[in-house]
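Notes from hallway chat w/ T.B., transcribed later so I don't forget. T.B. wanted the structure written out for a chain they're using in a teaching module, and asked if we could keep both sequence and structure tokens in one place. Agreed to drop them here.
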Amino acid sequence: MAVSNAFFSSSFTLHRSRVSNFDICSRICPFDSLNISPARRRFLESAAPQRRGKNILHASIDGTGSVGSTSLKSDQDADSVPMPVVLIDQDSDSGATIVQISFGDRLGALVDTMKALKDLGLDVAKGTVTKEDAVTKTKFFITRLDSGRKVEDPDLLERIRLTIINNLLKYHPESSAQLAMGAAFGIKAPEKKIDVDIATHIHVRDDGSRRSLLYIETADRPGLLLEIMKIMADINITVESAEIDTEGLVAKDTFHVSYRGAQLNNSLSQVLINCLRYYLRRPETDEDSY
């Protein structure tokens, strides 16, 4: 697959618009209340008003620009089903792909999940388990068996994500009501579908002198990562690293991107956002109308 070879070598060009007072903080939840990774936290903090003059481009399908307005969170009641979270981190470790899984305090040793990952031709180099606010977080450091290197193929990354979600559905069927794949493979489909137009938010900002940071939040669905990567490959944008975060029904993905070794400019950023916006809303759109 062409896009498989383009994950860290394809060229994308994004265009940035200059925003002098981008008050993202007034439109999202306080950082401390969000379940976000350090990379995403740095992205949101750097977009705050004190960083005036930075090149930032942002878009939402509904035009609101609100990153946190549709993030799904599980109830804190003791009887509620916790939020399933699958995080794939390509940025924190140069030698391994980090996979972190949490489902409240209901996960065990995840032996079957490790076996399923090995069946994909992967080696689980090491694992850690931590507990934070009654949530058990299991972290795996995985590499490819054939090369000993981290996973860079987007097709394989998507298979890893879907394999983990399939195992969650199999061994914790109660999670199906909070996962997009639960509609097809779970015992109980999600009660409410996410409105893609409202749930989708796309942001681009400078990330140093040689690259930009792309943040996408949207309704999750199988094959989402591959399609996003294909769109970027089609417009020659290089993806240097990524963090793939599935939180219940919502996908929150962060990409470090560049075009020919430089930041993305304003016009190409807008092209990328338009392409992503068109694709992400496509399931709700009659393609014959275009």
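Follow-up for T.B.: The helical segments are 2-5, 38-46, 111-119, 154-171, 182-185, 196-199, 224-234, 266-280. Might be a good example for the class.
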